[in-house]
Write a structure and sequence with these properties.
about 5% strand, 2 strands, globular, single chain, 7 helices, mainly alpha
Length: about 130
């Protein structure tokens, strides 16, 4: 995502997100981490206390949301599959997630029931 964060700050952010003893977070924790990181990229401090406000997510951060969506949409088809989510999470250090966990994460956001997350579903999730 083009952000740099110290190991110490990452640990604080993981604690804030509700990471369990294995360092895993649930979907809501992921949203917390994402929003915190987006707050930093839009002028927030590195203290881990800044969260992008909803109005920023709706307006000025739209391009950042699209960029984040593209990170997960590896094949560029406009949809995030459970496999793409699994691969992306692994690439950023969330090794403990099983594909079945990612299927369940997708189901929580998949409002049209197609088994994938499109950009509008991704955007709604981030609000």
């Amino acid at each position: 995502m083009g952000l740099s964060i110290s190991h110490d700050e990452l640990n604080k952010l993981m604690i804030k997100s509700g990471a369990n003893a294995d360092g895993l977070i649930n979907f809501d924790g992921f949203v917390t981490v994402y929003r915190d990181l987006m707050g930093r990229s839009h002028g927030g401090s590195a203290s881990g206390n800044d969260i992008a406000p909803d109005s920023e997510l709706e307006g000025g951060a739209d391009e950042s949301l699209k960029e984040a969506f593209r990170v997960f949409d590896a094949d560029g088809n406009g949809l995030i599959s459970a496999q793409e989510l699994h691969d992306a999470l692994k690439s950023i250090g969330f090794e403990g997630r099983k594909l079945s966990d990612c299927v369940n994460m997708i189901k929580r956001v998949d409002s049209d029931g197609n088994g994938h997350v499109d950009y509008e579903e991704f955007k709604a999730m981030m609000k």
